[in-house]
């Protein structure tokens, strides 16, 4: 009888150990939930790279001002704000006015889909705009306001197809651009 009693105690003890370990495993999983960082709408926030942007809930961003390095103002393809990476799709009005007054060159990534009115205003020393993408983008009328665009050359990606190249030239002309567009 004693053997039977010891056996039952041992089985109960093992069952208790299994129950406690499985419960603590569940608690550990519940205690440390994964945090999902999602894009949000925010106005005029600083990205980790120093650029100032408006973020959108759809994961895109509009650049308000662009940082300059060695007289080159490079619009970033992506920016990170509060741990969320956003794709830059718009150059807003006066994006170069505060930080890129002395920039001689502007680099536009393939992600940009629109340059707003007065988008290039303030970049008075710019001589060359380099377009990295192979697709045309919208350039709003007055994007070059305050600049002598006749002295600016827009150099596009060599892989841009003729149809897209023609479309971009037309968009630039509508925006008031008077300079040269080359591949």
Mean pLDDT: 86
User: How much of the residues is beta strand, in percent?
Assistant: 25-35%
CATH class: Alpha Beta
The CATH topology assignment is: Leucine-rich repeat, LRR (right-handed beta-alpha superhelix)
Number of strands: 13
Q: Helix fraction?
A: 10-25%
Question: Total number of helical segments?
Answer: 2
CATH homologous superfamily, by name?
Ribonuclease Inhibitor
- Give a short account of the largest sheet: 7 strands, mixed
* Helix/sheet category: alpha/beta
Question: Which geometry do the CA atoms define?
Answer: elongated
Give the topology string: H per helix, E per strand: HEEEEEEEEEEEEHE
Unreliably modeled segments = 22-36
Number of domains: 1
The radius of gyration computed from the alpha-carbon positions, rounded to a whole number of angstroms, is 28 Å
Distance from N terminus to C terminus (CA atoms, Å) equals 96 Å
Proper CATH architecture? Alpha-Beta Horseshoe
Defining key terms:
elongated; seven-stranded mixed sheet
Describe the 3D structure:
With 183 residues, the protein is an alpha/beta fold. It has one domain: Ribonuclease Inhibitor (Leucine-rich repeat, LRR (right-handed beta-alpha superhelix), Alpha-Beta Horseshoe), CATH 3.80.10.10. 23% of the residues lie in helices and 28% in strands. The protein contains two helices and 13 strands, in the order H-E-E-E-E-E-E-E-E-E-E-E-E-H-E. Strands 1, 2, 3, 6, 7, 9 and 11 form a seven-stranded mixed sheet that branches. Strand 6 (78-81) and strand 7 form a beta hairpin. The longest helix is centred in the first third of the chain and has 30 residues, at 2-31. The N and C termini lie far apart (96 Å). The model is unreliable at 22-36 (pLDDT under 50). Residues 1-28 form the signal peptide. This is Leucine rich repeat-containing protein.
């Amino acid at each position: 009888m004693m053997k039977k009693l010891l056996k039952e105690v041992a089985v109960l003890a093992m069952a208790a150990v299994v129950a406690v370990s499985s419960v603590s495993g569940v608690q550990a999983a519940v205690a440390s939930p994964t945090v999902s960082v999602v894009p949000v709408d925010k106005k005029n926030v600083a990205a980790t790279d120093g650029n100032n942007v408006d973020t959108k809930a759809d994961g895109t961003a509009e650049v308000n001002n662009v940082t300059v390095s060695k007289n080159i103002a490079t619009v970033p393809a992506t920016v990170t704000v509060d741990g969320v990476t956003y794709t830059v799709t718009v150059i807003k009005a006066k994006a170069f006015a505060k930080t890129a007054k002395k920039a001689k060159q502007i680099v536009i990534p393939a992600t940009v889909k629109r340059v707003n009115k007065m988008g290039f205003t303030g970049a008075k020393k710019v001589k060359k705009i380099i377009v990295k993408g192979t697709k045309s983008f919208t350039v709003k009328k007055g994007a070059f306001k305050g600049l002598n665009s006749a002295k600016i050359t827009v150099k596009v990606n060599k892989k841009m197809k003729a149809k897209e190249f023609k479309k971009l030239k037309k968009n630039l002309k509508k925006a008031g651009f008077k300079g040269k567009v080359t591949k």
